Amino acid sequence: MQIPRQAMLLRIFIGEDDRDDGHPLYESIVLKAREMQLAGATVLRGGMGFGQSSRLHTTKILRLSEDLPLVVEIVDSEEKISAFLPVLEGIMPSGLVTLEKVQVLQYGSTGG
Fold it and tell me: What top-level branch of life does the organism fall under (predicted)?
């Protein structure tokens, strides 16, 4: 699989407690991206954050929160990302989704 040098970064900000049909939303996003043969997806867990509600989510002991912030990042061609957006819209009850143009310098091994 190849990614064009000029690609798109889809960044999805959600909470750890967000669900899709009883499953963690981040798992559903990654599995659907894989099913649609996107180049890859990475889930990053944040130690602290807040969103639209301004409610603080943190790992600090005095304010335990199981709903920590998560970021799912997917990089692929503009066409593949555009095809994935309606699927994402259908499973995301809330959150923040951003898109930006990126330049892919390497994908996979360099051989050798």
Answer: Bacteria
- Digit-coded pLDDT (tens) for 24-55: 999 999 999 999 999 999 999 988 787 777 77
The CATH number of whichever domain residue 48 belongs to comes to 3.30.70.120
106 found inside a domain: no
Q: Answer whether residue 17 is part of any domain.
A: yes
Record the tokens describing residue 1, joined without a space: 């699989």
Take residue 2 and report the two structure tokens written for it: 């190849």
DSSP string, 58-96: E--GGG--S--EEEEEEEE-HHHHHHHHHHHHHH-SS-E
Could you tell me the two tokens for 24? Answer: 């963690």
Q: Nearest-5° angle of CA 50, CA 51, CA 55?
A: 55
